[in-house]
Design goal:
75% helix; elongated; Pentatricopeptide repeat-containing protein; mainly alpha; 535 residues; 32 helices
């Protein structure tokens, strides 16, 4: 029905006097709600001589459907004051809208109203909607309270709780709820299966995932496209279970870009980059256009293979597809060209990107650091901060590493001081290890050891190892022995640490120490793994 025809009907009802009939007025309110003319619906409601429950429900629906939640709640309260009790289904629909829009305050007000009038006890759908509301608004405790108060729970209720747990990253709790649901004698439906599979993927519960896979097969869910995609994702998340993922993928009659992206990305993440590229070619041959997720996986594969030729081919496709301005793809291309040794191409992409985030800047700075262009990395860091973009921990680590390898003492000291004084970067053991190595290379062994002692965390084996090496280089063999003992104490099961200690003992002429180290290695059955070359 057209808008103008609806207005004509309204005029006809006014002329004939039918507008006083609640049935006609209620229909007019519903009509204006569908036409999104909220003011006209309200006017019809206000002019009604008599209103029934349907009148109130229709007006509330009109407000809610058109995004006026506050007004809808006001009318709901007025409805209570006039002695009318709204339908539980109506309240559930309002709560659902609150959940989707994140209106927790309004949802809580409605929760209070339904507790007072007792509606919440009569409707499992309303209680389920409240569980969904609190879970979506990250109030898990209140969601559990509402759920536990429910006298009757069905598959939808349990699924809402499980989905909420997944959304809040409470994967263990989701698995517990999934088990409890079945103990209660309720069979998971297709939506429940779709909800629980991500928990199996995140927790690495491959055996549980296989059991759910068998359940989907027995109940005919395996033919569902979304279930197949969720199962592929679950198996792919577990690096050693690509075979069942591939079998599911091959059995799906119609494969969309999501499925192709999942399987290609999984092979890329597991290091089987050649297979990922082969699947990408197969995907193109079948006429499926890749999306940004697919291209990110393929760019990652090219990066791992250090193949600029393949990378250039993917880059050309990106330009043709119009995805060249996607910031994630741009960042991936910068990283790919840098890792393949094409720093000029990496800089060109960075330069041409219309929008850059902190990752873009960090990737380019890291690329310069990787290629030994320390001065350029420092210049870009200053430019980044001038533009109001704060560097993160990874950015500072890249620059610090560049200063370390370039032997830039003052610049390295300034970077580390900036990290400490800024109070915005949480220093990790990697930051300390890099700066301690920097001090060690410069021969400032006392400063390096003092920093080790003042560290807020336990020194890593990398730190002790770099100190040992620095002491050997600068002829401080007694210190080297002391640090080598610390290295062995920190990681006593690593044969390489004992070998380093033995070498230090040998350099100081402590042959008894060498024999003692070898004796300990024999007792603990530690053997150094020797490297080899095909050249």
């Amino acid at each position: 029905m057209s808008h103008h025809f609806g207005l004509q009907l309204h005029c006809l009802s006014l002329k004939s006097g039918c507008d006083s009939d609640p049935l006609v007025s209620n229909s007019l309110i519903s009509m204006y709600a569908k036409f999104t003319i909220v003011e006209a619906a309200r006017q019809v409601f206000d002019e009604m001589p008599e209103r029934d429950t349907i009148s109130w429900n229709s007006l509330i629906n009109c407000y809610v459907q058109n995004g006026h939640l506050e007004e809808g709640l006001k009318v709901l309260k007025q409805m209570y004051l006039h002695g009318f009790i709204p339908k539980a289904e109506l309240i559930a629909s309002i709560v659902s809208v609150c959940a989707r829009t994140g209106e927790l305050r309004l949802g809580r007000e409605i929760h209070g109203l339904v507790i007072v009038d007792g509606t919440i006890k009569e409707s499992v759908f309303l209680s389920t909607a409240l569980v969904d509301l609190y879970m979506r608004c990250h109030d898990s405790l209140m969601a559990l309270h509402v759920f536990n108060q429910m006298e009757v729970k069905n598959e939808v209720s349990w699924t809402a709780l499980i989905s909420g747990c997944i959304a809040n990253h409470s994967y263990d709790m989701a698995m517990e709820c999934f088990g409890a649901m079945q103990v209660e004698g309720l069979k998971p439906n297709r939506v429940t299966v779709l909800a629980i599979l991500p928990a199996c993927a995140e927790l690495g519960l491959i055996e549980h995932g296989k059991a759910i896979h068998a359940y989907t097969f027995r109940n005919g869910f395996d033919s569902d496209h979304h279930c197949s995609a969720a199962l592929i994702h679950m198996y792919c998340k577990h690096g050693k279970a690509l075979r069942p993922a591939k079998l599911i993928f091959e059995r799906v009659p119609v494969k969309d870009v999501v499925m192709w992206s999942l399987i290609i990305g999984s092979y890329s993440q597991c290091g089987n980059n050649a297979k990922a590229l082969k699947l990408f070619s197969q995907m193109r041959a079948e006429g499926i256009e890749p999306n940004s997720v697919t291209l990110l996986a393929i760019i990652s594969a090219c990066t791992s293979l250090s193949s600029p030729n393949l990378g250039c081919g993917v880059h050309s496709y990106v330009l043709k597809s119009g995805l060249s301005f996607d910031i994630f793809i741009g960042n991936a291309l910068i990283n790919m060209y840098a890792k393949c040794g094409c720093i000029k191409d990496a800089h060109q992409i960075f330069k041409e990107m219309p929008g850059k985030d902190s990752v873009s800047w960090s990737t380019m700075i890291g690329s310069y650091s990787l290629h030994g262009h320390c001065k350029k990395a420092l210049q870009l860091l200053d430019e980044m901060q001038e533009r109001g973009i704060e560097p993160d921990a990874v950015t500072f680590l890249s620059v610090l590493s560049a200063c370390n390898h370039a032997g830039l003492e003052d610049e390295g000291n300034k970077i580390f001081k900036r990290m400490i004084e800024g109070n915005k970067i949480q220093l990790s053991v990697e930051h300390y290890a890099c700066y301690i190595n920097h001090l060690g290379r410069l021969g400032k062994l006392e400063d390096a050891y003092e920093l080790v002692r003042s560290m807020p965390m336990k020194p890593s084996t990398k730190i002790w190892s770099s100190l040992v090496t620095a002491c050997k280089v600068h002829g401080r063999l007694e210190k080297a022995e002391s640090f080598a003992h610390q290295l062995v104490t920190t990681e006593p099961e690593n044969a390489a640490n004992y070998t380093l200690l033995s070498m230090v003992h040998a350099e100081t002429g402590n042959w008894l120490g060498v024999e003692e180290v070898r004796r300990v290695m024999r007792i603990q059955r530690l053997r150094k793994c020797y490297g080899f070359s095909r050249v």
